[in-house]
Amino acid sequence: MKQILGFYFLRMNSLIYKAKLGNKNMKKNLIRIAVILFVIILVWRIIILIKKGGESSKDFGRPPVAVLVDSVRYGPIQEINMFTGTVYPLYQYIVAPKVSGRIIIMKKRIGDWVRRGEIITRIGDAEYQQSVLEAEANLKIARAALSEAVSQLELSRQEFKRVQSLNEKGIASPSELDAATSNYSAQESRSTLARAQVEQREASLKSAKIRLAYTVLAATEPGFIGERFVDEGNLLAPNSPIVSVIGIDTVIIKTTIIERVYGRIRTGQMAEVEVDAFPAKRFYGKVARIAPMLQETSRVAKIEVDVPNDSLFLKPGMFARLRVILEDKKLAQLIPAEALVSRGGENGIFVIESEEKIARYIPVSPGIKTKEKVEILSPKIENMVVTLGQHLLEDGSPVILSAASNNEQKLKTDKE
pLDDT tens across 170-196, in order? Predict the structure, then answer.
């Protein structure tokens, strides 16, 4: 280009020189000089534009990308894990007889409430009442025998002392003393045996009364009748189940956690519970117990969540979904979840330099993640972040902010 310009300059000088020599063609030469000057200026301008285009081709070689942007916010965020489990009663026990017999009274059915000590079932007790009467009679006989033995022991003791005194005076022979001594010892043994028989009869009477008491079955703890296994008239064997009683004022939700989460679960953590039976309701409890071991085959550990159930909506056997709060931060730097991208295994975001409308890629360290937002631990972000269209961007790409972004930012500003 420089050679071309030099040529035209020489040509112009030559024409000017010839114009000086010949006045006749002066007018034509002036026109030619003007045309040459215009061409020179035009060529110079083209050269400048080509140079500028070469310098900026790296930044503006690609067309601008339309993107949506959003602002960085500061607020609370929670890390929540989802688990599934089953609802269990706080306690459950089976009412069963310890003696055999036929049911004569069955007062409770499924769903009925029972108080502590309230009678649920009676078993026919005629045989057991008769056993009590028999035991009482045997006890009376044993006591009478004991009374007789005590009297005979007292008489033999007196006889022994009398013969012993006479023997000391030389009146009674040694054989008489031996006979009195033997009689006294025998009566003493009979008295001891009579006392033992009385104790045995008393024990038998207590056993008979206990067996009689077993014919009346009452609730040991308050609760609801969960199941009823028999009806009136059924003949029962010992330990045959009659009803089950469950306590559901508080329920236990049992679930399992994997090894990766085990270290982050602690007793006292809050849990939100959902059940299919009441999809619009939420129940809240706390992690109460954590198993001290993981199952070797599945690498999971059991945990139990206690949930107050004053409304009695939660029933044993329900399928439950648990949302346990693993971490709760009151103030964190937050961006929309859509803004986070992964490039080569690295997490980052695109921010917009508002003055130049250029997208810049910034590596970030994310913290807690939810479906809607992500916590950014570092660095501190000052500019707007790209939430849509970032897959088309590179560091330094020009962008066009869509009307939706402008409207959203205007609404947010108005609300603030």
Answer: 777 788 778 888 888 888 888 899 999
